[in-house]
């Protein structure tokens, strides 16, 4: 089979303006809950797109850790490539691909660093192995072999066997304050439904987009 022959119809049902909540964050919460209830694998997984200083885009998948009226939160090594790119250009794009539900959500916004208190609160809630991994991995740096990483992990595991693990200074979170949120629902004959919420001052405006 040729790649160009791989296609299917989207039959889960359409999306109408009357079905949308007035608040896009509430609408996102509603769809996220449905994705979780549907048993989707990694429903909180999202693509984070950033741009480097030369204009080259980069994408990677991270997990959403919180969302409220202030924005969408994820955590990372602050020395990582994505964090460095955000430092130079805080405009970020997020994408949630909920394929089994034939849905997508696309978000554009501006990233801001979380406070030390917010970082500490989340870090202390993580499993100990995840805390150790955050310290062991100098994210995005080149390493000679996996054994180097595993050795560092075991070294730290022994060091902090009894005591609490401090929040590393090079680890923290970002909040993406949304400027636009698009909800996409697959439709038959490629007549998909797309609704774009755009923020003007403190108000959200809704537009239907052609598929």
UniProtKB/TrEMBL annotation:
The keyword Oxidoreductase applies. Keywords: Flavoprotein, FMN, Oxidoreductase, Pyridoxine biosynthesis. Its cofactor is FMN. Residues 32-156 form the Pyridoxamine 5'-phosphate oxidase N-terminal domain. Substrate binds at residues 7-10, 65, 122, 126, 130, 190-192. Signal peptide: none annotated. InterPro entries: Pyridox_Oxase, Pyridox_Oxase_CS, Pyridox_Oxase_N, Pyridoxamine_oxidase_dimer_C, Split_barrel_FMN-bd. Belongs to the pyridoxamine 5'-phosphate oxidase family. Catalyzes the oxidation of either pyridoxine 5'-phosphate (PNP) or pyridoxamine 5'-phosphate (PMP) into pyridoxal 5'-phosphate (PLP). HAMAP family: PdxH. This is Pyridoxine/pyridoxamine 5'-phosphate oxidase. It comes from Vibrio brasiliensis LMG 20546. The gene is pdxH.
